[in-house]
Amino acid sequence: CSKEGASTVKVLKVGTDAGFAPFEFQDEKSKEYVGFDMDLIKALGKQMGYEVQIQNMNFDGLIPGLEVNSIDAVASGMTITEARKQKVNFTKPYYQAGLTIVVKNDNNAIKNFKDLEGKKIAVQIGTTGAAEAKKIKDAQVREFNNAPEAFMELKAGGVDAVVNDKPVNEYYIAQSGSKDAKTVGEPLQAEEYGIAVAKKNTELAGKLDKALDELKKNGEYEKIYVKWFGK
Ligand code: ARG
Fold first, then answer.
1. What confidence category does residue 6 fall into, taking pLDDT thresholds of 50, 70 and 90?
2. ipTM for the whole complex
């Protein structure tokens, strides 16, 4: 029997690491995955006529997941980098970010990336923050499965600093960390987030780009942006 026809619901399997508020995190009450990326990918799916199914996984498993086709797309605050472009296709950028530093409130010795030389730094495995921290002279870099664990290690005093994406650092401090921690440093470099799809899936990347343009034109993107980041 045919699976074609008007009643067919196309499913878009989307991988994310839902420990990255406000982009993706689990709502404590509803247990749903929420955040800017989650709203955006659902809106994109709707625009394209797909039902979006979210799969929560480790960040460093997302690109392998695309490569073995267990997921169709990644919406996970993933920075578009040259190294990743060798393995996957990215959509156009949908968000501008950059890396900053989180230290304890009473730390006045670390004010910028230069001050991290010789220091203990916590990062999330597989991220741009991890890659940049490893370039810092004499730094001892400790890699954690997710960003919340890196923040916990800072709180516990196991490291001097966390290097991670600026909007996530700011959200962490605003939501729960302001008694213990603060962000310092100008963003190390501009980073842009894109949605990733498998290398051979240029068709899906094209559809996502088109839908993203449409959401920017019809005001939907703006609505989602304001919901999570304010004006
Ligand atoms: N933007 C950084 C990167 O691409 C960190 C992304 C981490 N995302 C997440 N959902 N944990 O490497």
1. low
2. 0.98
